[in-house]
Amino acid sequence: MSAEAPVPRLCDLPPEELERRARRHVDGFFGETRAAAGRLKTELHPLTLIRKHPVAVAAAIGVAGFVVARMVRGSRRAPAGAAAGPARAEETVGRTFGRSLLTALAGAAAAVLPELLLSLLRRRRAPV
Fold this sequence. Notes:
Elements lengths: L14 H29 L2 H7 L1 H23 L12 H37 L3
Helix pairs in contact: 2-3, 2-4, 3-4
């Protein structure tokens, strides 16, 4: 049997010891959180995702490009039943937001596309 010293209750500890223990626990918690954030940052980095899932990324880029192309092509045409008066503000803001969102997504996809293609080419050249 081991003769361990009895563990004091928290209410019996002096305030300095309580503060030291609390600080140690908080520092440990934040240390673990930083480590988990670092792992997530590495795992969810765009290039890492491209290397792990090149086909899914290429499909997402293709779908985004198709949607943006449809929106751009559709925005050039005037609607058949459009009145000569001004459009309602809600429709204008909604359409503008949707277009800007899809344009941003397409721009991000276009920025990633060259790296995706290089990754695919490197993977095909590497011996299995």
